[in-house]
Each structure stands twice: as C-alpha cells, then as structure tokens.
Amino acid sequence: MALSGALLAGPARAQTLPDGPVTLLVPYTPGGGPDILARLIAPPLQALFGQPVVVENRAGASGNIGTQAVARAAPDGRMLLVQANTFVMNPSLFRQVPYDPIAGFAPIIQLSRGDMVLAVNPDVPARTAREFAELARRQVLDYCSPGVGTPHHLGMALFAQVAGVTMNHIPYRGAAPAVQDLIGKRVAAQVMPVHVARPLAEQGQIRLLAVGSAIRSAVAPDVPTVAEAGFPGAEVDLWFGLLGPAALPPALVTRINQAANAWLGEATAIAALKAQGMVAVGGTPQAFADLLQRDLLRWAAVIKANAITAD
C-alpha cells in the first residue's frame, strides 16, 4: 500500500503538518540502525508532509547531544528524532543527561526491533544457555560488548543476573573489534544482533545459544528463546522509534503515526528492514509510550543491580 498525497489535502494540512523542511535527527554516526531507519522512512514522510525531509546525524555523548536538540526544538514537526533503546538506558548510566525520556518527548511510533542472541566462541564447552550458565558458575568467563552501557552489555548483565552468575565484562570501542575478539577466541561470549551472528555461526566461527526475543527469531528459528532455555526474564532486543518534542500537536502525532504504520505494512518496507536484521513493528503512540516507560524502569533496575556507569 503506497502512501497517497490525498492524505494531505485541504485546510487540515495547514493545521496538522509542518510548513517547511523537516529534519530527521539521528543522534549517532551514519550506518547504524537509527540512521538506516531514518533514511528508509524519509521518502514516505516527505510524501506525507509535502516538504523536503532530510536526515541529519548529530552524534556525541552516547546520543545525548542530538537527543537534547530535539527536546529543545519547536513543537512544529520541523525536527523529529529517530532513536534506539539506549534512549531509555542513558538516564541511568550517566549522572546527568540533558533530557527527560518521558516528559521531554512525544512518542510517535515504534518503527522496528532487532533480535539479539547469546553467542559463544566454539571452544567454549557449552551447547545450551543452561550449560553456559553452569560453566560460568565454575569459572569466571569474559564477555565483550561494543561499549559500556550498550544493549549488548546490559543484555549480558541481565542474563548473568537472572542466571545467578558472575562474568567479566570487556568493553570495546565499537561492534567490529568486539566481534573479532569473539571469533578470535579471546573472549568467551557476547550478546549480539542475531542477523550479524547467524552467518558467523553457519561458518562455524561462533555458536548460538539463545535469542533474547519473546518468540523465536525468523533469522534463527532453530535457536531457542532465553525463556525456552530456562531463563525467563532475561529478554533483550534492540528497538528503534520515532519521537518529537513534548508539545508536538496530537493531530500531527496521529498523522505521522498513520503514515508510518502504512509504510511499515508495505512489502518493500518489510523486505528493506529484514535485509538490515530488523522486524517491522508499528502500533499506536500510546503503545510506544508504554514501552518507553517500561524499559526505562526495567533497565534502571539492571544498571543499579550491577553498578554500571558510563561516566
């Protein structure tokens, strides 16, 4: 179903749509999930607005700099934010962040999610998540992540917490060196995106033990969920969403939400997201708001229990 310019016509457009170019602000460097999503959804939003839609990367401070810019923007729809779930993790990781993830934004829609998986190097003598936990009870295992406070880090911290084991975290500067050291058998394990992990597993470079999603991943349907593996409550994923400044008019939120849902239902969008390891989600602004509140509290508890800080 293609977006139609007919959605825009008449006086309602002047009341609910931006009157100038729109910026999709991505508070991270190009190439990551939020950036990919912003560039995919920019054309259908441009069709909705009847205005140019440009993607701007404004990275820094784990996404806090760009996020603050949107929080301070005029609530006219001219600047929107494409974010990942680090958005609700950062307030607990830093002593101070320049935004309130709940009061400072108008949630528009959860765009997609990316499944995560617990992976080990092939020398680790564990073929299930339960065997891995038992091994971690007998010896201290090293695990890696792309950095302190990333979903990869917090996902493994949560697994260890649920399993009742202690492991040693080794943070890296980015995903590539972390994956290389897992493949190189310099660390035992990592929680990582399943679409990145699956090809490596097929080549015998790593072994997949459990996916962090509530249901099995379409990318690795033979891999059990953490709940199926015996660790309910250890679920973790990557999610991505679209937000605006707090006072964004509800009518505009509704229009953008409807357009984004329509795009997410198109076969071409589903295929484009799948190619990037993402699953289209969609839903209402309230459903996204509920996710923000739930994950803010959930990850705050994990961060506090494990004394994790990014400062």
The outline comes out as globular
Q: Describe the largest sheet.
A: 8 strands, mixed
Low-confidence stretches: 1-14
Q: What count of structural domains? A: 2
**Average residue-wise pLDDT:** 93
The sequence of SSEs as H and E is HEHEHEHEHEHEHEHEEHHEH
Radius of gyration: 20 Å
Distance between the termini: 46 Å
CATH homology superfamily name of the largest domain:
Bordetella uptake gene, domain 1
- Report the β-strand fraction as a percent range: 15-25%
Descriptive terms for the model:
alpha/beta; D-Maltodextrin-Binding Protein, domain 2; 311 residues; globular; 11 helices; two-stranded parallel sheet
Overview of this protein structure:
With 311 residues, the protein is α/β, with parallel strands linked by helices. The protein has two domains: 5-113 and 237-305, 3-Layer(aba) Sandwich (D-Maltodextrin-Binding Protein, domain 2); 115-211, D-Maltodextrin-Binding Protein, domain 2 (3-Layer(aba) Sandwich), CATH 3.40.190.10. The protein has eleven helices and ten strands. It has helices at residues 11-16, 33-49, 64-71, 86-93, 129-138, 151-163, 175-183, 194-202, 250-264, 267-275, 285-305; strands spanning 22-26, 53-57, 79-84, 105-120, 142-145, 168-171, 189-193, 207-211, 237-245, 279-280. The radius of gyration is 20 Å and the shape is globular. Mean pLDDT is 93; it is low at 1-14.
